[in-house]
Amino acid sequence: MRGGIIEANKMKLNTKNKKNIKPVEPDSTERHRANMWASLSIGTFIVVFVLAVTLGAPLIMPFIYAGAAFFAILFLESLLRGRIWPFEDHFKKNLGQEDVAKRLLIFCASILLLMETAVILNWMTR
């Protein structure tokens, strides 16, 4: 008899607690981890590129250093997590939309224009 009352009280406590707790998606922590690794790898690319340019690395070497750092972070992620962020489902869905290609093309064209301008200015000042 007493065991039944204790179990009933536990069930009441559990239902009270469940009302206050928001449901969490099962993959939300994995999504946050993937976002963290994406931010880390992209941020590493930018920091290494700017640092190499600041230290006076010759023409294409800052890009090579930044790319090597980016892939080093991806390799580290593959060792620690067993997968890498570009192959996560939510990144595949976002990159699979039709307007992403246009935005990426405009972004790459603007970066190319900036790099060409820097090379021309560098060539003209020498």
Helix-strand makeup class: mainly alpha
Q: Quickly count the domains.
A: 2
Q: Helicity, in percent?
A: over 70%
End-to-end CA span: 94 Å
What shape does the CA trace take? Answer: flat
Report the uncertain regions. Answer: none
Q: Compute the number of helices.
A: 5
Report strand %: under 5%
Oligomer: single chain
Q: Give a count of the beta strands, DSSP E runs of length 2 or more.
A: 0
Along the chain, the helix and strand elements come as HHHHH
Biggest β-sheet description:
none
Mean pLDDT across all residues, rounded?
Answer: 79
The radius of gyration is 25 Å
Give structural notes.
- The protein is an all-alpha fold and 126 residues long.
- It folds into 2 domains: 29-86, no CATH class; 96-126.
- 81% of the residues lie in helices and 0% in strands.
- It contains 5 helices and no strands.
- The protein has helices spanning 2-20, 28-54, 61-81, 89-95, 98-125.
- The protein is flat.
- The mean pLDDT is 79.
Question: Which helices and strands appear, and what pairs or packs with what?
Answer:
Elements: H1 2-20, H2 28-54, H3 61-81, H4 89-95, H5 98-125
Helix pairs in contact: 2-3
Keywords:
126 residues, mainly alpha, 5 helices, 0% strand, flat
Give a quick rundown of the structure.
This protein has 126 residues and is mainly α.
